[in-house]
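User: Structure with flavin-adenine dinucleotide, tokens only please.
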Amino acid sequence: MAFKSKIFILVFILFIGCMQPESSRVDFALGTVCSITLFDQGLDSIYNEIFARIHEIESLMSVNIPSSDISRINKAAGIEPVQVHKDTFMVIERAVYFAELSGGAFDPTVGPLVSLWGINRDEPRVPSQDEIDAVLPLINWRNIKLDSQTSSVYLTQKGMALDLGSIAKGYAADEAAAIIRKAGIERAIVDLGGNIIMIGERKDKNPWRVGIQNPIEKRGAVIGVLQITEKTVVTSGIYERYFDKDGIRYHHIFDPSNGYPAKNGLLSATVVTDISMDADALSTILFVLGYEKRMVLFNYLPNTETIFVFQDNSIRTTDGVNFTVTDSTFFIKN
Ligand code: FAD
Ligand code: MG
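Assistant:
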């Protein structure tokens, strides 16, 4: 009997030993599919902590949650400053930094344009020029007043609205990566709807291989493979959110100077760097500014590489990028 129970215990231990740790967890948050993969040490408790943090960031920074800091700031536009969580304050501060750096190509007060075009709603539409002209004066990052003493934010004009859709996913990815690194996990992938951080390197010591989305094909089709170690990769493109009307594609990244989806011959702009929040903002900026004006930015930014994909299927990369085209309809033109 005792022997039998010992065998049972042994079998049980072997079974536990063979059980694979959870290899990845996928959840819906930030309006997108969020996937975390922890290699070798995929503890439930770490996954729980990461997703709790992502949901916390969403509850602070979403425009769709009425109690969020961003919704409260927007409701109080032109009325009074609103005290916010230090994380929200920090992300807005960084957004303002990028607004200034980009000469307003990136503007977190883009909210009224996003609403007008209804890009994130079921029935998007092309607004009239009068409607666009009416909201353009509200798009102005200079009218965000920040008070770091009280951690409060004031939008000076009624009708102004913040939208952190171009930067907060990157912040959430950085926060997820921070939890993973703190837990001592050496190899992991954070993918928040295409905001990717590759932690460590592959088990065989080779760099990670990240596919770059084909901007004109269905999700998952790639134009090529990027090899990286311990970097973040973020792409802004025409394919993320869009609608077609009378043969014209209208996407979700707006040029604040005219109120229309940015149009400069690009299909997508990818940024490879160290901080995902910065990469998120930078990919949006590059998509708005376009290839010709990119240097306005890059004189300031070390350790930042880019991949631009153009409407004629040409691709231009910076020198430090290890990128191989796998779809023969695209070609490198450096
Ligand atoms: P990016 O290029 O990184 O950003 C484009 C987005 O930024 C646009 O969608 C717009 O929101 C904004 N933007 C457009 N032009 C500019 C500009 N010139 N300067 C600055 N910003 C600009 N989606 C939903 O459908 N439902 C949700 O409930 C929802 N909740 C979200 C909550 C949070 C906290 C975040 C961060 C995102 C959420 N989203 C939601 C997704 C969001 O609406 C955007 O569609 C998404 O973040 C776009 O990311 P991207 O990487 O594709 O594009
Ligand atoms: Mg972005």
